[in-house]
Task: structure prediction
Amino acid sequence: MGRAEIEIDEQLVRALLRAQHPDLADRTLRQGPEGWDNQLWRLGDDLAVRLPWATETADALLLKEWAWLPSLAASLPLPVPVPQRLGRPSEVFPRPWIVTTWVPGTPADFQPATHPTDAADALAGFLTALHRPAPTSAPAGRGRGGSLADCEEQVASGLAAATETGLIPDAHTVRDVWRDAIGAPEWTGPRVWLHADLHPANILTADGTFCGVIDFGDLCAGDPACDLAASWVLLPDGAAERFHNAYGPPLDDPTLRRARGWAVWRALGGILIADAGRRGRPGGKASWGPPAQLALRRLTATATAR
Result:
């Protein structure tokens, strides 16, 4: 069941709360962003309701957050939306939903970080804390956190589409960065916890630095390089080296090469999603374009300097 089959509005959200969590039902409700999978409704000042609406997989992603995120959140140095209550499927709304803590801040695709030192330290501290060995029962990624070679067809088609439409000026250098990344040795360390979806809409800023991380629907275990791509995608100019030095354990060359490959994958996706937004297509987000273009410029500059 998706967005076309049931309309989510304030009346529905309040009815769900009255039926299952009546102590929360009289709080103010304000609709927030609509993501790929979920709708967000702010509940009072300190909570939020997240309901699946646009994809069949959204139910499983919410339940994954419910199962794993509370135990991880306590050790993370940036605020995250910690699940507080679970909503059960019902006749009113036949899908699970959750109530989480509210994380204040502005998404970085609208307000990027501007303080290089503070942002690098905040992101490095967050990922150092998150990237601890995961249990064998931890979920696998949905095409993330594994081998970069699994993304080769997607990157090739994305690069071709972006080149044909004139969205990137230097496809040759982008391709070189990607080829170098997939040629790097595979990760042989322990599978670590990953956010796996660190694009600018999923990290929040205030006062020039990062103040929260949201949307853990792709939480999984795998190669840390998948998340380390964020140093090219999220940070201000001049901050990547400080981030790499502040992150622990120390980063080796193969991991950095793979991370650049994940950054290419992320940036190409952002550029194409932004183009869809400018053309008014469903799922498009024009605000994703500038940070994605900036990421590619940084990656190609890095390749030229190597």
Notes: The longest strand covers residues 29-34. Residues 10-101 form a domain with the Phosphorylase Kinase; domain 1 fold (CATH 3.30.200.20).
